[in-house]
Specification:
Elements: H1 8-21, H2 27-46, H3 50-66, H4 72-84, H5 88-105, H6 108-124, H7 128-145, H8 148-164, H9 168-184, H10 188-204, H11 208-221, H12 228-244, H13 248-263, H14 268-284, H15 288-305, H16 308-324, H17 328-344, H18 348-365, H19 368-385, H20 391-424, H21 429-488, H22 501-521, E1 531-539, H23 542-549, H24 551-568, E2 574-579, E3 582-590, H25 595-608, E4 623-630, H26 638-658, E5 664-670, H27 680-685, E6 690-694
Parallel strand pairs: 4-5
Antiparallel strand pairs: 1-3, 1-4, 2-3, 5-6
Helix pairs in contact: 1-3, 2-3, 3-5, 4-5, 5-6, 6-7, 6-8, 7-8, 8-9, 8-10, 9-10, 10-11, 10-12, 11-12, 12-13, 12-14, 13-14, 14-15, 14-16, 15-16, 16-17, 16-18, 17-18, 18-19, 18-20, 20-21, 22-26, 23-24, 24-25
GO molecular function, one term: diguanylate cyclase activity
Catalytic activity: 2 GTP = 3',3'-c-di-GMP + 2 diphosphate
Protein name: diguanylate cyclase
């Protein structure tokens, strides 16, 4: 957005104004406004005003976050709209907000679907490691929920990621698993997409006949369908394959048909890819200027949307166009830039393609020393590629590079001989023949050396592939073991249905950072909803319940106690079973002054609630509470803040127990200036002073434990 003139400060100020405006909007009106703003974003995307659409979407996200009742599905809808328009960076922010809301609500399947969307955005931005992390997290949820459809969709995405990482053999297995599921359940569109992606892999391996078979199967499975997006994509892929085999006229027809189908959709990314292929086809047919114009248009779109792979493909096509025109200097410049881009994206196959173009350009320009240097780099990259690619893919790539190198070298040799004969008519014949023979010997030596290296590389390759296969089996076994471990981990306590410590560990650091960020952003404004409140609640004399009535009765008391806590606190608060009869509550976006009221409401409701344990009469129980602001001493580090806060509330809880139970003690806030009447809690935690609140007679009546070892 900086390129469009929107500074970060301006966006934040706009977000603050919108937040103030919507602070008192009722839920129905807020949803209506959201729908209108959503329509505005959609209109901006249709008008290709992408920078304005990004800004509008981020402001809309900030508005929605201020509305606690705003459904998470609205976030997902906005994220999908932006993702379909290839605005992947902004869509990531939207999907992350949706993921957080789904996690809070415990919607596991929707969490997994959102993780899949995040993986897709990261994959388009060439952030493959991050995308794989999201896929693995979603796959663990799919296994827990036994959702086979979700597993198939994740396998499809996993195969696409592995393909774009050039891990061809690894990519085929999840794609075929996805295809089997979609075929068995007669899901024609998804089956067609799986066939299309498998065809892409065989095209990458230069197995054009097999690739064409899969593309045709993909087309036949949805022929007559009303989905122009998928039909257009398949047509363009067939055109790309025809272009690869040299049938440029047929390729142009197929790509044109695919582009016409895609033009009626909103998939600007697929349209840009089709225009790039059309540009290549036009160059091959001799319409060079028009073809280059389409290539440049596709590259501009790739740059604006952050799609590194599309940018690399476009630059490669442009460099090949310059080579075809024998404009070797421009071809060399594009190939060098493309090599840098491919290196940044860790695209070894792309680097090899650009280096091959550099090799051909240097040979054509007669700079053989540089050509030999490039060949050395190519050889080194081939060795690196052995660690990440299967045998057939590497051999196909080597054959392609070797063919290009040999054909260009032989063409240069023939041109050099003709040049020598022409020059001999003007200069001395003997000197020209000496140079021609020397050049021929050098090129012949170069060819012989390359063939020798290739044979040795093939022997090494066989050994490496066998070792890689063994390593792959071992890693698969480790991955299956990890999945089993993930299945055993749950976000909720099975007895009470409350969150457990795993949930707290994942949620709390982000909540602390968000609270601290809000406080820093608006230090002088109303802080009514910026605080994090923390309460530690313990059931009094719970051991007597187990001893007198049995552990089954104790479990019933714990379940009923959890329900009381749900009635006391808000749905947005984190209610956690900390262990045994202890419960922890974290209240988000709250006011510290509410702490005594919350504690008293909890104490009173527990004391007044009859607990049914299966006897003729229910029993009565009470609870003790310790509380504090999170964090009380304004530590910046989230881990330190939590450790300090828990120590404070634990100390306050046991002070409440020592003071007679059925009450509460806590710290509302700490003071920045020295306070004369410091309490034991100030001495213990080195506070300059603090505001203490208690349900007992007064602060002087609190019995403070000397150390935490004196717990009762």
């Amino acid at each position: 957005m900086g390129r469009e003139g929107f500074s970060t400060l301006r966006v934040l100020m706009c977000a603050l104004l919108v937040a103030v405006h919507f602070a008192h909007v009722n839920p129905v009106k807020a949803l209506t406004i959201f729908d209108k703003e959503f329509a505005d974003v959609e209109s901006l995307l249709h008008a290709k005003q992408y920078a304005n659409a990004d800004t509008k979407a981020l402001l809309l996200l900030e508005q929605a976050l201020q509305q606690q009742h705003m459904p998470a599905d609205m976030f997902s809808s906005l994220g999908e709209l932006l993702q379909n328009a290839s605005r992947f960076e902004v869509s990531k922010a939207i999907f992350n907000a949706a993921l957080e809301r789904y996690t809070t609500e415990g919607e596991l399947e929707k969490m997994a679907s959102t993780l899949l969307q995040l993986a897709t955005s990261e994959r388009h931005l060439s952030n493959y490691d991050t995308a794989l992390t999201y896929v693995r997290r979603a796959m663990s949820i799919a296994h827990i929920e036994r959702n086979d459809l979700l597993k198939a969709k994740l396998n499809l995405e996993l195969g696409i990621i592995r393909q774009q990482q050039n891990q061809i053999e690894v990519a085929l297995e999840p794609l075929k698993q996805a295809l089997d599921f979609f075929r068995e359940n007669r899901m024609s569109n998804e089956m067609s997409l799986s066939l299309l992606r498998i065809g892409d892999i065989y095209s990458l391996l230069n197995q054009t006949s097999l690739a064409h078979t899969y593309y045709q199967d993909a087309f036949d499975s949805i022929e007559g369908s009303t989905d122009p997006r998928l039909l257009g994509t398949i047509k363009t892929r067939i055109g790309a394959l025809l272009l690869k085999t040299g049938a440029s006229a047929q390729a142009t027809v197929a790509i044109k048909e695919g582009l016409e189908l895609l033009q009626v959709t909103n998939d600007v990314g697929a349209i840009a890819e089709a225009k790039m292929l059309m540009g290549r086809a036009l160059v091959e047919n001799g319409e060079t200027a028009k073809g280059r114009e389409l290539l440049m248009e596709a590259m501009r779109f790739a740059s604006s949307s952050g799609q590194a792979k599309l940018m690399i493909d476009g630059r490669l096509a442009l460099a090949q166009a310059y080579m075809k025109e024998q404009d070797f200097e421009r071809a060399l410049a594009e190939a060098r830039s493309g090599t840098i881009d491919a290196r940044k994206s860790r695209d070894l196959r792309g680097q090899l393609s650009f280096l091959s173009l550099q090799l051909s350009a240097f040979v054509s320009l007669g700079e053989f020393k540089k050509a030999l240097d490039i060949q050395s780099v190519i050889q080194q990259l081939r060795e690196v590629l052995l660690d990440s690619e299967n045998k057939s893919a590497i051999e196909g790539l080597q054959a392609e590079i070797e063919l290009i190198r040999q054909s260009r070298t032989l063409e240069k040799l023939e041109e050099s001989k003709q040049l020598a004969l022409a020059q001999a008519e003007r200069e001395k014949l003997q000197t020209t023949l000496v140079w021609s023979v020397s050049l021929a010997v050098m090129l012949l030596t170069f060819l012989v050396w390359s063939r020798y290296k290739q044979r040795r590389q093939t022997i090494i390759l066989r050994r490496e592939v066998r070792q890689q296969t063994l390593d792959l089996h071992k890693k698969n076994e480790e991955l299956q073991a990890a999945y089993k471990t993930l299945e055993e981990v749950s976000l909720r306590d099975p007895l009470t249905g409350l969150y457990n410590r795993h949930c707290l560990e994942s949620q709390l650091p982000g909540e602390i950072r968000r609270s601290q960020f809000s406080a820093r952003q608006s230090p002088t404004t109303d802080k009514a909803k910026q605080d994090l409140l923390c309460l530690l609640i313990d059931i009094d004399h719970f051991k007597r319940v187990n001893d007198d009535y049995g552990h089954i009765a104790g479990d019933k008391v714990l379940s009923s106690f959890a329900q009381v806590l749900k009635n006391v606190f808000r749905q947005t608060d984190l209610i956690i079973r900390w262990g045994g009869e202890e419960f922890l509550v974290v209240c988000r976006q709250s006011n510290r002054e509410e702490l005594p009221e919350l504690a008293e409401r909890c104490r009173e409701m527990v004391a007044s609630t009859p607990f049914d344990i299966g006897l003729d009469k229910p029993i009565k129980i009470t609870c003790s509470i310790g509380f504090s602001l999170l964090s009380p001493d304004k530590k910046d580090n989230s881990d330190v803040a939590w450790e300090r806060t828990f120590a404070v509330i634990d100390y306050a809880l046991y002070a409440s127990k020592l003071s007679g139970r059925n009450g509460w003690v806590g710290v509302i806030e700490t003071l920045d200036t020295d306070f004369k009447n410091r309490t034991p809690i100030d001495e213990k935690f080195n506070f300059t002073g603090s505001r203490i609140a208690t349900s007992f007679n007064n602060i002087a009546s609190i019995q403070w434990p000397d150390t935490l070892d004196n717990k009762q």
